[in-house]
Specification:
Elements: H1 3-15, E1 44-47, E2 51-55, E3 65-69, H2 81-100, E4 103-111, E5 123-129, H3 134-147, E6 153-154, E7 165-169, E8 174-178, H4 198-206, H5 222-236, H6 241-249
Antiparallel strand pairs: 1-2, 2-3, 3-5, 4-5, 4-7, 6-8, 7-8
Length: 254
């Protein structure tokens, strides 16, 4: 690597949060890149230097994808600038791709620790047909939040995030729930509990498939997953910033 790349990596290493916010990779994590099981590797559809994109196991729709750091970070409030940059580039690439398909994206990230366990950060990206109005999605989201007695604030990228949070984003609006619990999925109000399926529940309702809130009910056979992954890559490749970068730099894709 050249001097500029070396300096960039040094800066990112210095920015990396301490081990209280980042766990080591371990065999129990589905998302650490070195620990992905052989029978799930076909779901990975793109690689950057610090992040990758995978089809969701049991996705709400065929092209439901996740943007995931390769190493174990608990949330977007703990990642270094290299990961932030790549996530931003993937969001731009996916937005352009789904726009070409007559769709827009809804995204959500849950950084709430259930049972005291910190999960591996993943940003869920779900394409929605433009015939489903954003206002309809927003109304369903706010109604579910009210039903669960959860207070959401408007959010702008760059705002400081709490240790635990849930972020829901549409193209025109972003909402943030700042979790005040003690790491078991409970909020500060007595008896208040954050539903682990909150974001998926809302989108399943909007898509008219409420039973799909349970991802296990949507798991496809492996050969069908492979066909969907191949179809996604064939359509997405011309929008994939990593492939465009590799062509410009004469690098071979991974």
């Amino acid at each position: 690597e050249d001097a500029a790349q070396a300096l960039k990596r040094q800066r990112e290493a210095e920015e990396a949060p301490d081990d209280t916010k980042r766990r080591r990779q371990d065999s129990s994590c589905w998302f650490c890149i070195d620990q992905i099981k052989e029978d799930a590797r076909h779901l990975v559809v793109s690689h950057g230097d610090y992040t990758y994109v995978s089809l969701a196991k049991g996705g709400l729709v065929d092209f439901h994808v996740l943007i995931i750091p390769m190493e174990h970070y608990t949330g977007s409030n703990t990642i270094h600038s290299g990961i932030q940059d790549e996530i931003g580039q993937y969001i731009d690439s996916l937005t352009a791709f789904f726009e070409s398909q007559g769709q827009y994206i809804a995204m959500y990230e849950r950084n709430i620790h259930f049972g005291g366990n910190a999960s591996h950060m993943n940003l869920q990206v779900v394409p929605l047909d433009k015939r489903i109005r954003e206002e309809e999605v927003k109304s369903a989201f706010l109604a579910r939040a009210m039903g669960n007695s959860l207070a959401f604030d408007d959010y702008k990228f760059g705002d400081k995030l709490s240790e635990q949070f849930f972020l829901f984003a549409l193209p025109s609006e972003k909402f943030l729930y700042r979790h005040k619990g003690k790491g078991k999925g409970h909020g500060k109000g007595k008896g208040e509990k954050f539903d682990a399926k909150f974001g998926r529940d809302v989108l399943a309702q909007v898509l008219g498939v409420p039973a799909a809130a349970d991802w296990k009910s949507c798991v496809r056979p492996s050969d069908e997953e492979k066909r969907i992954a191949d179809r996604f890559k064939a359509k997405f490749n011309k929008f994939d910033w990593t492939l465009n970068r590799n062509k410009k730099q004469g690098r071979k894709p991974r």
